[in-house]
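Supplementary Data S3. Sequence and structure tokens for construct A.
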Amino acid sequence: MRRPSLGVDPVGPGQLEAGDLGRGVGHTPLEEHPGLAAWTGVERLTLKREDLNPTGSHKDRGAVEQIKACVESGQRVAVISSSGNAALAAATSGTRAGVTVVALLSPRTEPGRVVALRRAGARVLVTEKPINYGIRLARVCGWPDLRPSQSEEAVEGFRSLGEELAAELSAGAAIVGYASSGTTYQAIGEVLVERGARLALHPVQAGLVNGLSREFGRQGDGRRSLVGDLGVKVSPRAEAVSALVRGSGGQAWWVDDLAIAEAGEVLRRTGFDVATECWAALAGARLAAAEAGLGDVCLLLTGRAFPPAGDGATGPGTLAQPTAGWEETLALVEDLR
């Protein structure tokens, strides 16, 4: 089975036309797993292997459409605030198409993610205010903001996942996966409505990322989680996504660190080297099975784990030395303006 590396493919910078960016993205396999089904407490569990996309996550689907839009509009620089997967997907597609992606990260980002982003060609900046400064850079510099929560191109890209699930899953199945802003679930939900597919949406959240789960009465404990708190905490898509989830017959869930860690250990023992978001998704599936009686579950494996790595950089805008403020952040990208 294919297992791409976390980095840029052999195609050189700017050598692909916009229409070629989707090469190798999507059409991921669906695998049934009785062992995980038994642990989760459901009759049937299938894995949608989004971790087998080129950069290891479903974010490749959205990034392809986002970078296509940049190329078609003549934009050669774009900005994104991300905890890793979305930025890596954008940087990889951007490098292939000749678009520089400025990625703003929190100092709490795993060093392995930073290394992967630099290898993918991103201009990485570490700051205590990644979302705020990302918005300001986009406005001041006139660069597209690639945050999926703000991008309609990302929604368009994620629709391909919805199309595959609608075609592959049996009526009555539940789709369970981790969600931050809910952009992926908006895209999937819209496709399901259009197709009349009877599949229930069950997004899972954790830690301080609870914008969807609290719409269903699950606030969480107010603590950071193993998944991290770098996702969108107040999503502009929350109302629309919640309506799609309810309309599908599903619910949004919140899981704690104990459940996440237990699910992670099960996935590791089963041979899946996936991101903590996937651990939370499996924990959510188990909770939903117990409380909502799910029987047929499709679990979205939405990202691979990043290998541990040291961050040797020590200058401004690195994990070792986050930017001192807005002016320093802006100065570090002045050559791109």
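Construct B, processed identically:
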Amino acid sequence: MATSLIEDTWAGDDVSVAEIERELARLRDATSSDDSQPNLRTSVMTHVAWVPPDWLHMAESTLLGMAERHPSRTIILVPRPEESDGLDAQLSVRCFPIGDRAVCGEVIELVLRGRRVEAPASIVLPLLISDLPVFCRWRGQPPFGAVELEQLVDVVDRLIVDSTEWESLPDAYAPLAELFDRTAVSDIAWARTERWRSLLASLWPGIKEVRSIRVRGTRAQGYLLEGWLRSRLGHDVSLEVDENERLEGIDVDGKPAPFPPGDPPNPSDVLSAELDRFTRDRVYEAAVRAAAIHA
């Protein structure tokens, strides 16, 4: 991974969106005028991340690990509804060396205080790069039906969640499914089952008669794998989950399935792969709808 170089930064409290735009333009101009190394501002998307304070450190580490692969304008929204109304900002231009040049992206970290939490679209829309896709990574369980989620769903081209981070399972899959016709949805918990799904599919035709699975992994992975099998096979499949932080094994009708080849990807690799997807995943959507039946 390339080392991140922060070329210039700016921070302000109780700022306006116009002030953020002005300071962002100044940072870009300052970076471009640096003759020590030719810098290219190459954004392929706008990446929005809704990050409650408890998730901030983990989110920043993940974003740092993938920034050179997806140079973008990253807008990190940190909600603090318990504080007095206001908007605080920290801006930076981060450059990554590629040969004798550096590719630069912008990071806009915004703390939404008080009622500003309820109007993220009015803040995000002026900061989007026109004609580029917009992705939103939502850390933790989304507040389904809340105005902040509703606004961002209508702004973004893809919503990226990780249902492993959710407490209300499988109940939360039902309101998630209601979003599928409004925006494309990715689930990192689902992405982390890909090697195992490929393995189970390779057991065809024997797998078509499966009646039960025992998953040693997260609850989310268990529900999604069971939902996937039930939606593909057209019959009920009972589920037992031996909770684990990562997916370490699956028993099919009481017999251990072979271990799939390869190593599980790191968080940056998983998120990077989801940012390369531009269409709906109908197989995932069917698995979620089947998992929601348990709710």
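The chain has a mean pLDDT of 89. The chain has ten helices and 13 strands.
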